[in-house]
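Figure 3 (text version): C-alpha cells given as input.
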C-alpha cells in the first residue's frame, strides 16, 4: 500500500473536508475581506533530501468574504499544505 494512503476509514474522512483561514487587517483589527488566497500542496515532501526545493502545486484559489474568512473545500489528501495570500490586490493594487 502506498505510504500516503490511510485505508477505508481515511477515505470517508477526506470526503468534503476543508481547510479554512480567518484573515485580520492588523492595522485596523478588523476582518480583511477580498484577500485572494491560494492553497498549495507539496508534491515532493516525502522525497525531500535538502538538496532540492519543494515542488508546490495549486489545489484551490479563493477570496476572503467580508468577515475575512476563506474556506477551501475539496477531497483532502494527506500531505503538507501551504496557504498564500495576495494582500496588494486586496488593498487596491493590481
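Below: residues designed for each position.
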Amino acid at each position: 500500500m502506498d505510504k500516503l494512503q490511510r485505508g477505508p476509514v481515511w477515505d470517508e474522512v477526506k470526503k468534503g473536508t476543508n481547510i479554512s483561514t480567518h484573515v485580520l487587517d492588523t492595522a485596523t483589527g478588523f476582518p480583511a475581506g477580498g484577500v485572494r488566497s491560494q492553497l498549495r500542496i507539496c508534491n515532493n515532501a516525502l522525497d525531500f533530501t535538502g538538496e532540492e526545493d519543494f515542488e508546490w502545486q495549486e489545489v484551490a484559489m479563493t477570496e476572503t468574504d467580508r468577515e475575512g474568512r476563506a474556506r477551501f473545500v475539496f477531497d483532502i489528501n494527506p500531505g503538507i499544505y501551504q496557504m498564500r495570500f495576495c494582500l496588494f490586490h486586496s488593498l487596491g493594487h493590481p
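Residues 9 and 15 are 11 Å apart (CA to CA).
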